[in-house]
Amino acid sequence: MAPKNATLHPAARPSRWLVAAAFLVFCVLGLSPLLIMFERLAAEPEALESLLNERTLTLLGRTVALGLGASAIALTLGLPFGFLVARTNVFGAPALRALGIVPILIPPIMMAMTWTMILPLRGPVMCALILGVSTFPLVALFTGRAAERIDARREEAATMVGGLGAILRMEFPLLLIPALGGAVLSFIVSINEFALCDYVSAVGKKFNVYAGEIFSNWQVDGNEPRAVATALPLIVLTLLALVPLMALRRKGRYGTVDGRFVAPARLKLGRARVPATLFCLFVVTLSSLVPIGRLLYESGGGPRVFSGVSIRRAAWTQGGGAAQNMPGAPGAAGAQAATDPGAVKLDAKARQEAVRAANNAALRAAGQVPIAGADGLVPQAPMRKVDMNAPEIKAALEAATTDDQSDMGGGLATFTANFKKSFSRAFELSRESLVSSLLFALIAASISLPIALVLGHAIQRGRAGGLLEVVALLPLIVPPTLFGIGTIVFWNHDWTAQIYDSGALVALLFAGRFVAVATLICSGAVASFDPELEESAHLAGAGPLRRLFGIVSPGVWSSLVGAWIVVFALSVRELDAAVLVPAANDTAMFRVFNAVHFGRDDFVSALALLVIFTVLLPGLLWSLFSKARLRILP
Amino acid sequence: MSSSPPPPAVECKGLIVRAGKAEILSDISLRIEPEEHVLLVGPSGAGKSTLLRAIAGLAVPSKGEIHLFGELASRPGELVLAPDKRGVGFLFQGGALWPHMSVAGTLDFVLKRKGQDRSARKRRIAELLEIVDLAGYDKRRTPTLSGGEAQRLGLARALATEPKILALDEPLGPLDAPRREALLDQLQSLARRFGLTTIHVTHDPDEAARVATRTITMTEEGALV
């Protein structure tokens, strides 16, 4: 959306004091972790030398290929899906549209947990597939919103020329730009993803990605400059992708709304309605129903291992391929191999070794035992005291040493009983973690929203809006692992020890990382808000605060709720940055990550479902109790 | 030997158009003869644009029929002839130009549907731009056109479909007085040159009275006076 502030009366511009105050908070939460890391790099520039080695370049190339693959899948699914559910008469379009958002809210590692059980694929192909399926809603959201913003008269003009075919031909170029924008975001998310690739590596052939390298470089000897240096190529890549995206956004290329906009009607697909509906159902099934259904099935005692895969994996694990240098090491493969009924060909010693490897790896994932060099892991990792009584460790150890993975013999009654049992167990063992996650996310979203509103408004109406927008994006362009390390370094001082040791650090981490997302949502909403309404309030004597909170906020309130919900959801599902922060070890997401590296059981599946439910909760409540539509995009 | 009179260009019989429960057009019956320039006037919300859209096939009647040159075009709940098969060229309010296209690209988009080869299309584009006084504008992007230029390109786009009926929805609305007069003259001469039947919707009865052969007035209730 093009900014409309060109003619805004100078006195009606945002209050400098208010913007300065919001920017200051933003600096502390979002920029300081980055600035301190770059300051460390500036003090030790020789760390940059490691950038050009062959390993780094290979990893970078592989990660870019992964990102391109994922964004291609996201584009292929998201463009037609977004258009069909937003603008055509496919059966159940509103429900399909709502379901189409779910995959981006499901933590990618949970997608990986389910899809690696269903498909025998592993390595980069599997990662790209999961990331593509996870991030296709970004493309669908952009496409759908752009399609809704094509003026009805323009569409009718195409109808007069050649019916539905002409409409599609006319609209495709208009939708391609926003769709590509969504694909670029998919690419950015994919190249920065760490936990998912780590997990897929853990249950298959070793597959490192660049985001993991940042963590490893930091972990080797706590070398912060090296971590920043390693992150630089990813930051440059993200910037290269993001800058044109933002430039197009400012030029209003994601929508074609002008003065007297007439909303278009849903297009009638005729004979194509049924196949189009089937396509949308296929996408929704692939991206959300299958993963959630699979977790439900496992929670009810269904087998956690696809035997055809597990035999191969067991053989691979037995061959000593378990060495990994990631924090979430390959223990899951060993645990599954050891407990998989399909792996009975392994001898007792191998099974015992597999269980041991699984347990050790998962403990390492929690940062709770020294990382042994013998199995190829990076040495000298930060060590912490082992807490063998941690509920997820107890539960997972119990599962990892249980031979019978399938409890489905008794049919539906057994399934229901198992289901209830696993949920009550997950809830009982992880209640505190779920409450922590909920609390951290609530605080993060509530801190982010007012800052985002003030900054978003300033981006559209202030003098240096373009510059502010770029600065506001910075927390998003650095890999989450680097942001996590930066947060640790920034807050790890005597005078901030109370914050560092408490859950407050987690809430601050989430707010700092995701305030940029909320700011973009608010900025988009303000861009589509008529500035004359603010000017008239100014002429009526309203000051900047009253204009912002009394005129602008009510006008964009559905976007504000949308921004709050997005930050909440992202915070609950955050793992890549949180995995590094000690206080975040108490989040439900971390418990799933921790437990899944011990092996799969109904506890892990039930806990994963509880996390997904928590992520979706505000959106569900909104759709149940409000008639208004949430607005994420203007 | 006596020949039967030509069928009316437009004939509406008991036309009713509803939007939800609201009746936008109520029991409209009218005849428009070929090459007439009919002015459709009435207050805002009278349903003038809806009637025009129904004739063009952009709105489906709830009751009644529409015949174009004797051929059944719409009947209750159904478009017998698709909008692009009716021989109606539509000039939308504000032009409704496609914002991602150039001037030439807009016309080329229409002409491609006719299966003409590239050189024929190029010639036809030049011809159309000449007709609407936009020669030399080929490469201009549509959002850079002024209100009058946009309307003229909208007119060229409508003519590119080689229509027999020209449907004009408040075509002069965004223009100042001199440009209104110029466009009106242009519309009149084009209608005569190509033998077009023109249905001209406006809320201002004086707007095009000098070029109209007949004025039809609609009431606020969506009926004809």
UniProtKB/TrEMBL annotation, chain A:
Localization annotation: Cell inner membrane; Cell membrane
A GO biological process of this protein is: transmembrane transport
Q: Which Gene3D superfamilies match?
A: MetI-like
Name a single GO cellular component. Answer: plasma membrane
Spell out the Pfam families in the cross-references.
BPD_transp_1 (PF00528)
Q: Which CDD domains match?
A: TM_PBP2
For this UniProt record, give its keywords in alphabetical order, as a comma-separated list: Cell inner membrane, Cell membrane, Membrane, Transmembrane, Transmembrane helix, Transport
The principal location of this protein is membrane
TM region(s), chain numbering: 17-38, 64-86, 98-117, 123-144, 172-191, 227-248, 276-297, 434-455, 467-491, 503-527, 548-572, 603-625
Q: Does the record's keyword annotation contain Membrane? A: yes
Q: What membrane topology does this protein have?
A: Multi-pass membrane protein
Which InterPro entries does the protein's record reference? Answer: MetI-like (IPR000515), MetI-like_sf (IPR035906)
> Does the keyword Transport feature in the UniProt annotation?
yes
Q: Which residues form the ABC transmembrane type-1 domain?
A: 60-247, 434-622
- Give the similarity note: Belongs to the binding-protein-dependent transport system permease family.
Which protein is depicted? Molybdate ABC transporter permease protein
Organism of origin is: Saltatorellus ferox
From TrEMBL, chain B:
Q: Which SUPFAM superfamilies match?
A: P-loop containing nucleoside triphosphate hydrolases
Keywords of the record, alphabetical order, are: ATP-binding, Nucleotide-binding, Transport
Q: Which SMART domains match?
A: AAA (SM00382)
- UniProt keyword Transmembrane helix present: no
Keyword hit for Kinase: no
Superkingdom, natural source? Bacteria
- Ranges for domain ABC transporter come to 10-225
GO MF terms here are:
ATP binding; ATP hydrolysis activity
**Protein name (database record):** Maltose/maltodextrin import ATP-binding protein MalK
Q: Which gene encodes it?
A: malK
